[in-house]
Design brief:
The chain contains three helices and four strands, in the order H-E-H-E-E-E-H. It is an alpha+beta fold.
């Protein structure tokens, strides 16, 4: 009986038309011709590296992409001695897509922020900060990919 239940679930998932969002072998309907970036170099490097799949597409919808990224770290709370006890890390990525053929321009802003507590060991704090930044960049990349996929469907 248990195997039969798993068989029905498996057949249902196969027949419902499910396709993964981040499937890499999908045909892309957008091509990024030039990518210009300004702002934080580490954030821009990760974003450009992960958007290379849009540069190799054979599509008639050709866009120029401009990326402007900023990273801001603020002290949220301090102890009695004036030492920071918690921080807030904010990443903002502004993208501007310009269609080459009809000169339309689309702008979207992606923002992620995270609060975290300070640590006694500064090396551990720096490593924790870098891990948070990498996770936030990957979340922003997922949002950018979803935005580009939705833009693809609207074209």
């Amino acid at each position: 009986m248990r195997n039969l239940k798993y068989l029905f679930i498996f057949l249902f998932v196969l027949s419902c038309g499910y396709t993964p969002i981040y499937q890499t072998d999908q045909k892309l309907n957008i091509k990024l011709d030039t990518i210009n970036s300004s702002g934080d170099k580490n954030i821009n490097r990760e974003i450009v590296k992960n958007l290379n799949k849009y540069e190799d597409s054979d599509s008639n919808n050709i866009f120029d992409l401009s990326i402007n990224s900023t990273k801001k770290e603020d002290v949220v709370t301090k102890d009695k001695k004036g030492n920071a006890t918690s921080y807030k890390l904010t990443l903002e990525v502004d993208i501007n897509l310009s269609n080459i053929s009809d000169s339309k321009s689309l702008t979207k802003k992606f923002t992620k922020d995270m609060s975290f507590n300070s640590k006694n060991n500064k090396f551990e704090l720096d490593q924790y900060r870098l891990n948070l930044q990498k996770n936030m960049i990957s979340q922003i990349l997922q949002d950018i990919n979803i935005y580009l996929r939705n833009l693809e469907n609207d074209l």
